[in-house]
Write a structure and sequence with these properties.
Elements: E1 2-3, H1 8-15, H2 20-23, E2 29-30, H3 38-45, H4 53-62, E3 65-75, E4 78-82, E5 85-89, H5 90-97, H6 107-118, E6 123-131, E7 140-141, E8 172-175, E9 180-184, E10 188-190, E11 193-194, E12 206-211, H7 216-224, E13 237-252, E14 261-264, E15 267-271, E16 289-301
Parallel strand pairs: 1-2
Antiparallel strand pairs: 3-4, 3-16, 5-9, 5-14, 6-8, 6-13, 7-8, 9-12, 10-11, 12-13, 13-16, 14-15
């Protein structure tokens, strides 16, 4: 299957089919015709090829395949499957709220990022996670976290979610306030944004990028380093790999009656009170949600 971008509707549609296992054996070919093109940029950049439609189509024609991790996000009985990223805080605000400046083209992101940093928001909340080997010392122990982890509820049809023994995992926790929380499945979030330089397509982990406190001028500098992944080397950035996450979003620190936006794969997953277009319906509510990654669930056409 050749698609312009692996949007959430494509992956969610495949995984909700009764024959989801057979459907996912069909490799997906991606061409750069979307807004960000992070998935195809990640694929082509991994072999040093430019992110163009011609190179993307050639990759599909060659027929080489590679597995792709899929994250299951759930809240109660509501589920969402993600293959690119999840963001809360600064990155989500820029991605979603800059829609009002779409007439500016791609410049809207840079323009609104500067505007948002100069009037920086911080959010209360916490994030609990199961670290990958080598990151066990990040954060504080969170032994009670499993008690608050809601089990995946069976659905009538389709993929039932990853089978992970969450009770016997090493849970850790970071408390806010947060400037930004960003989960990434592949290196590039857009053609000019290397969000997670160490991310792998099928390693069974998500890359977590967290900023809690950061001076505004330093933050502007960090944003300018997104084109080559240099931001993750900053002492203001926590960068690690995780297997599972519990995100508990809170209100803004300056205005307790206003909350934030949770964005996944370019879609608004949840809108809190007082946010941009908060009257519109979203997939989930602005409360605790859970994420677990399933290794190599989907298949992509790859250049080599």
């Amino acid at each position: 299957m050749l698609i312009s971008n692996i949007r959430c509707k494509v992956m969610n549609g495949l995984l909700e089919r009764e024959d989801w296992a057979a459907a996912l054996k069909m490799p997906l070919g991606v061409i750069p015709a979307g807004t960000g093109n992070g998935m195809i940029k990640s694929l082509l950049d991994s072999v040093g090829e430019p992110c163009t439609a011609a190179h993307a189509i050639l990759a599909a024609i060659r027929g080489h395949k590679r597995s792709l991790d899929v994250a299951t996000i759930w809240q109660g009985e509501t589920k969402f499957f993600s293959v690119l990223m999840l963001a809360w805080g600064l990155i989500a605000d820029i991605d979603i709220e800059s829609e009002k400046y779409r007439w500016m083209g791609s410049a809207r992101i840079s323009f609104y990022a500067l505007k948002r940093i100069l009037r920086l928001r911080e959010y209360n909340g916490s994030i609990s996670f199961v670290p990958a080997p080598g990151f066990e010392d990040v954060g504080e122990p969170s032994g009670s976290c499993v008690d608050s982890m809601e089990p995946l509820k069976p659905w009538q049809h389709g993929y039932q979610g990853p089978k992970v023994d969450l009770e016997n995992l090493n849970w850790r926790k970071l408390d806010g306030p947060f400037v930004s929380v960003w989960l990434h499945n592949v290196p590039w979030g857009a053609e000019n944004t290397m969000a997670a330089p160490d991310a792998k397509f099928g390693d069974g982990y998500l890359d977590l990028i967290v900023i809690r406190q950061c001076p505004k001028l330093t933050l502007i500098s960090l944003m300018s380093k997104l084109n080559d992944g240099g931001h993750v080397k900053s002492p203001y950035v926590v960068y690690m790999k995780v297997k599972a996450v519990i995100l508990e979003p809170g209100s803004r620190t300056d205005k307790s009656m206003k909350e934030g936006i949770i964005d996944s794969d370019g879609e608004v997953l949840a809108r809190g009170k007082g946010t941009y277009k908060s009257n519109l319906k979203s997939w989930m509510v602005y409360k605790k949600l859970q994420v677990v990654v399933d290794q190599g669930l989907a298949t992509l056409f790859t250049p080599v």
